[in-house]
Amino acid sequence: MNYAIIAAGEGSRLAQEGVTLPKPLVKLNGTEMIRRLIDIFLKNDATSISIIVNEEMVQVQDYISNLKLDVPFNVVVKSTPSSMHSFFELRNFLRDGKFCLTTVDTIFKEEEFSRYIQSFINDSESDGMMAVTDFIDDEKPLYVDVDETMTITGFLDQSENSKYISGGIYGLTPKAIDTLESCLESGQSRMRNFQRQLVADKLQLKAYPFAKIVDVDHAEDIKKAEYFINN
Length: 231
What we know:
Radius of gyration: 17 Å
Number of domains: 1
Low-confidence stretches: none
CATH architecture: Alpha-Beta Complex
């Protein structure tokens, strides 16, 4: 399984709230968020790990340059206007089979993630498997419509009927890269628009429910994430 991490955001809200470290290096229970993800991926059949960081994150660049992994480790240093553009910069590392992409501040339980990855590996029919959750603690959630087979039928900015929201963990096949490239060519931006286009392109996407997924966007989220991981 190829894994990719988008760590190119500025983390401006954390900085405004007094957090001095760049977001990827913020520690949860003593471990940097980016290192936590890498370690989890290595435990879950990683054949490669690819990361994008922005040009301003010199501390993160230095940190990553000192990491030694036993799998191919690809690093892109580039500032991008959106997560979708960051994904685009990583796409050529992800063409040779199923891959899992996430942002650096997506926090989940390790055991739940492992079950998700095994389900994705064993799924021979769908074009992707997206993490969803019915725990909603997001400033701008992306709602996910599913049918009775947990096939995704839509991604919505607002919904009164959707049980789930996107968890920010994207299990995909190389077929999705064609959609990604078309999105960039047509001037689209934002990951949620890419996900909508996947449905429009008739890719078969399954939803995999997680009990809870949280993001670290604010200083107060750090303690919340640590509590969540520990309990």
